[in-house]
Amino acid sequence: MEREDILQSAISGDINAFQMLFAEFQNQLKSYLYRLLADRNDVDDLTHDTFIKAFTKISTFNQEASLKTWVFKIATNLAYDHLRKLKRWQPDAQDRGADLAIGSEEVRQAFWKVHDTSAAGAYEMKEHIDFCFTCISKTLLIENQVALILKDIYDFQTKEICLILGKTEGVIKHLLNDARNTMTGIFENRCALINKNGVCHQCSHINEIFNPKHDQQAQLMKLELVKKSKKYNREQLFTLRTLLVKAIDPLHAAGTDLHESIMNCVRTAIGEKSDFFEKHPGKAE
């Protein structure tokens, strides 16, 4: 069956046809939602809700944009409803998470357990840069965060982002410019990888903990971001950072489980979770 025939069947209410089309971008959708929500359980819930809502409303899909863009709009609206109930993260969120981990032997042991027993419990410095990007992006206003991630990480066109956010092209360009400037400024002042005055050494410190046999300088020099930090300006370094982030799927990487644990620690430290060890309602132990 041709793709157009599958689409028409989906629009006519064929759930199997819709599932086939949804599956084409489901992994990317979940990755996108994770960067917005920072919680795998919430991602699963919202992906399910997105599927149900999109299929329920499929008869209204007028093909003004691709089905993928239309579904991402639905997912973004659901994520927005969820996020507006929460406080924006502050740039020191990771620091607060680190303080919690340092002050709790139980949390530290939980990290080690994931690292030692999970197939996705490895630590790689480039994945922590991706983790950091997610945390810092959550300091932005939701619309700025969405525009930035859609454009710079998932390569959506400006006109597609206009449809997803319901904004004009001029507004989207402003959101992108503002988001990039904010993120660039935070990284320039915090990141010790690109600025010797940066205050954050998490990448190398955590690498020393989980990979004590690694030569730290060798690991750093493997990163294009570090290699270019003395030659490139801040905007070019931000572009390099986004290229690194684009190459990583935060839900299917070597350290996915370890970074989920670290993310839970951050969310607990800033009050978004009440307890690092709490289980998601309805989830198995």
Give a quick rundown of the structure.
The protein has 285 residues and is mostly helical.
Question: How is this structure best described in words?
Answer:
Helices cover 66% and strands 0% of the residues. By secondary structure, the chain is mainly α. The protein has helices at residues 3-11, 15-23, 26-37, 40-56, 67-83, 93-103, 105-117, 125-137, 142-153, 158-165, 169-190, 202-210, 216-221, 224-227, 234-246, 256-269. It folds into two domains: 1-86, RNA polymerase sigma factor, region 2, helix turn helix motif (Rna Polymerase Sigma Factor, Chain: A); 89-277, no CATH class.
Give a topology summary.
Layout: H1 3-11, H2 15-23, H3 26-37, H4 40-56, H5 67-83, H6 93-103, H7 105-117, H8 125-137, H9 142-153, H10 158-165, H11 169-190, H12 202-210, H13 216-221, H14 224-227, H15 234-246, H16 256-269
Helix pairs in contact: 1-2, 3-4, 3-5, 4-5, 5-10, 6-7, 6-16, 7-16, 8-12, 8-15, 9-11, 10-11, 11-15
Order of helices and strands: HHHHHHHHHHHHHHHH
Rg, alpha carbons: 20 Å
Quaternary state of this entry equals single chain
The count of domains is 2
Principal-axis shape equals: globular
Tally of strands = 0
Q: Uncertain segments of ≥5 residues (pLDDT<50)?
A: 281-285
Distance between the termini: 42 Å
The count of helical stretches stands at 16
